[in-house]
Amino acid sequence: MQRVLSIQSHVVRGKCGNASAAFPVELLGLEVDRLNTVQFSNHTGYGSWTGKMLETAEVSSLLEGLRNKGWIKKYDVILSGYMRDKGICQVISDLVDEAGATWVCDPVLGDYPRGLYVPEDLVEVHRDISCKKAAVLTPNQFEAECLTGVKITDEKSAWNCIRALHDLGPQKICITSTLMTEENGKYMIGLLSDNENSIRGKIRMPVLTDKRCVTKDNESGFVQFTGTGDMFAACLCAHSASLPFHQAVGCAIYAVKATLEATLDRCQGLTDLSKADLELNQIGARHKIMNSGSYDWTEFVKLL
C-alpha cells in the first residue's frame, strides 16, 4: 500500500487544503499523513478567521521528527498545495530527493478573477524549484500563465503554455481549468499532457449552476465551491497509483463532480446558499469516490 505525505494548508471547520485532500486519498486506498503549512479556523472566503501560518523552520522541525523515527523513506508520494513561506518549497524539494518519492505539485498561486493570493516571490520559487522537481503539476489557467508568461486565449495558446511548462521540468501536466468553455458554459475546458507516454488530451470539467446563486455579477448562477482544486489533485494523486495519468485525470474529475452534486443535494429545501452550506459533502459522496476508479473516464477526457 502506497503512503502519501500531504503538505498543504488545513482548516478546522470546512473542506480546504488537507481537510479536503486527505479523506478522498484514504477512501481510494492509500495511507496519507498530513503536514499542515497553515492552520486556520476556516477558509479565508468567510472574511474572518483565526490561526497561523507555519514558517520554514517549523515545517523542517516536523520533518526532523519523522526522520528521527526512520519514516521519511516510507513515503511513495509527496503531495503539495498551498504554502506562503517560500523556504518550504525548497524543503519539499529536498524531501523528495531524500524519500525517493514522486512529487505531485498543485502550485497554488491564485485564480481568475481574484489574481494572486500568495506573495509574488512564490511564483519564481515554484518556477525554479517545484517545476524542476515535480513529476506531476496541476495548475489552473492563472497559475500556468504565471509560471510560463504565456497567455492562454484559445486552445493553440493553451498548448503553447503546456509546452512551456514541460520545458520547466514536469513530465505530466494537467491544466485543471481555463476560461474556455463548451456547450454554452456547461463545461470548462482543461488540458492534460503526459510527455513520458506522448499522450495529450482535452478535459471537460463540469460546471454546476443553481438559481439560488444568481446575482447581477453571476447571471448564470455558477456555484462557487472551495477546496475543489485540493480534492482534484488528491484524487489524481491516488488514482495515479494504479491508473495511467489520463485515466486518473478522468476518474478524479468524476470523484469531484460526485462530491459537488452531493453537496447541492444536501442543500435541498434551502432558499439561499451560504459558504457553510457549500462546504464539500465528501461523506455524502464517499461511495462514489471509492468507486471512481472504475468510472468511464472518457466522459471527461478526450485524447487528441
TrEMBL record:
It catalyses: pyridoxamine + ATP = pyridoxamine 5'-phosphate + ADP + H(+); pyridoxal + ATP = pyridoxal 5'-phosphate + ADP + H(+); pyridoxine + ATP = pyridoxine 5'-phosphate + ADP + H(+). GO terms for biological process: pyridoxal 5'-phosphate salvage. One of its GO terms (molecular function) is pyridoxal kinase activity. It comes from the Eukaryota. InterPro entries: PM/HMP-P_kinase-1, PyrdxlKinase, Ribokinase-like. Keywords: ATP-binding, Kinase, Nucleotide-binding, Transferase. Residues 78-265 form the Pyridoxamine kinase/Phosphomethylpyrimidine kinase domain. Pfam families: Phos_pyr_kin. One of its GO terms (cellular component) is cytosol. Pathway: Cofactor metabolism; pyridoxal 5'-phosphate salvage; pyridoxine 5'-phosphate from pyridoxine: step 1/1; Cofactor metabolism; pyridoxal 5'-phosphate salvage; pyridoxal 5'-phosphate from pyridoxal: step 1/1; Cofactor metabolism; pyridoxal 5'-phosphate salvage; pyridoxamine 5'-phosphate from pyridoxamine: step 1/1. Its EC number is 2.7.1.35. Belongs to the pyridoxine kinase family. Catalyzes the phosphorylation of the dietary vitamin B6 vitamers pyridoxal (PL), pyridoxine (PN) and pyridoxamine (PM) to form pyridoxal 5'-phosphate (PLP), pyridoxine 5'-phosphate (PNP) and pyridoxamine 5'-phosphate (PMP), respectively. PLP is the active form of vitamin B6, and acts as a cofactor for over 140 different enzymatic reactions. This is Pyridoxal kinase. It comes from Oikopleura dioica.
